[in-house]
Design brief:
This protein is mostly helical. The chain has one domain. The protein is built from eight helices and no strands.
Length: 166
């Protein structure tokens, strides 16, 4: 996904990034909501899906970064000539908690699989590259939340099977 986003223009990178984040939030909700069909019937906008996900256990620490990337996406959607600037990317960066900001720095400086041509320090990245790296960290965080929920669900199933066998 990193290479795909890096090869897009700013608009393409932001839209694809937001689609990725939205898919992860939907996946999380599909695991924690008993009947996902009714969630779909409610026609909940993305902002309220995120709030619902947090109320159902999605780590609150990633609420602000999700809202920040959504805000950037909305700027592209409603301003024909919008261009990312350093303040957009700084606000996105600042929306992360300290350990995630460390992860953002680390994924660049300590990643032997860093794509060719990508700087080895966050401060040397272009505005778009910074945004893409932060989206990847956010996606990893949400994916981790999905994995935790899957592990919990599988544990519940195993416990139910053990009780049934007893």
């Amino acid at each position: 996904m990193l290479n795909i986003l890096l090869n897009e223009d700013e608009l393409g990178a932001v839209v694809r990034a937001h689609i990725l984040i939205e898919q992860y939030v939907d996946h999380f909700l599909s695991l924690v909501v008993y009947n996902h069909d009714y969630l779909d019937k409610m026609s909940i906008d993305f902002s309220n899906k995120v709030k619902l996900a947090v109320s159902l256990g999605l780590d609150e620490e990633i609420y602000k970064p999700i809202n920040s990337i959504t805000s950037i996406r909305n700027k592209f959607a409603h301003r024909a000539n919008f261009k990312l600037d350093s303040s957009d990317v700084k606000n996105f960066y600042d929306s992360f908690v300290a350990k995630d900001r460390d992860g953002i720095q680390d994924i660049i400086s300590n990643n032997p699989d860093r794509p060719a041509g990508l700087a080895d320090k966050y401060s040397r990245l272009s505005i778009k590259e910074k945004l893409v790296v932060m989206v990847i960290i956010l996606a990893i965080r949400i994916e981790h939340e999905v994995k935790l929920e899957l592990d919990y669900t599988l544990e519940q199933i195993k416990d139910s099977e053990d009780e049934f066998d007893a």
